Amino acid sequence: MIEYREFLYVAVTLCALAAVMSKNMLTSAISLAAMSVGVALILFDFNAPWAAVFELSVCAGLITVLFISAVSLLRKEEAFFAEDRTRFRLLPLFALIVAIGGWIAGWPFFEALADYARFGARGQSLGSMLWETRRMDLLGQIAILAAGVLVINSVFAVKKAEK
Amino acid sequence: MSASFATAWYFAALLFFIGLYCMAASRNLLRQLIGLEVMSKGSLLAIIASGAMSNLSLAQAVIITMIVIEVVVVAAGLVLLVKTYRVTGGVDVWKLSSLKG
Question: What's the complex ipTM?
Fold first, then answer.
């Protein structure tokens, strides 16, 4: 028997597929909202009501409104071009391949990852956690920050050159 | 508990793949933003599953921050989309080649 949470996972995945595959942008936006509702229900089930309320109000509400308003802004003037639909029709096949491959190869990896989550449960402070066990993450963040600085630098350099 | 964690991560990886495929396969900017949304939902699932095993309040704080940033990213992306539409007359990423050397 499928449990409530597994049912929600499957529903969220199906909504994601519908959002990606549907031809009409409005249907995509509404499928995305349905997916957000599913994620919010999962968050409630994980006993995280605050995050669920945020997800429900902001992602299922505000982002959907933003998407629909953007679609309505573009729709009038036939902005959308005919895209090759074959790629999207092939998506369920690829998703199935990834799902089966993940079931065979990824499952032990995810089980092993649980040990790291348990390691995090030992009540260390955030500082010791960051500096002693997550150094690679910190390095990655520093690299991303440096990339952002480079982007800003290059944008301003272009403006100077224009003057 | 561990099985629940692995299930959540399995579906998170699947969602992440679907979003990534959408971003890679589509030429439509709006659909790429939808792919980004799907990817962020996948990572949200991964965070809440990890938080359920360790520190749920910290995970909730991270998720709320993430949702707020997501809204900002989507709003900025849609503004850029409308701007792109006004400049190039479409939402095709292949038309964004005016900076080509």
Answer: 0.90
